[in-house]
Amino acid sequence: MYLEAAGTYTLAYLSNGEKIVLSKSIKLIEDIVNSNLFFRAHRSYVINVKFVKRFDRDLYSITLTNEIEIPLSRRRYDSFIKAMKLIEG
Fold it and tell me: Nearest 5°: phi and psi at 88?
């Protein structure tokens, strides 16, 4: 569902509730995953866009289907809107 930076490690949160600690940086993993499905929302977060439930434009906050809120960097706003339009159709 999403990745969270943890120093030189990355925490991967799966849709089944499982959390996996990866010994790679979030940047390295971001370079490996499918860029059509994953979006760098913030310097500390990469999200799977298929799990986006809603977006709060005022708070720059993305809520995933598991109700976790992920911050959206203001400078990534336009790219996020474009990515969501591609997914929607």
Answer: -70, -25
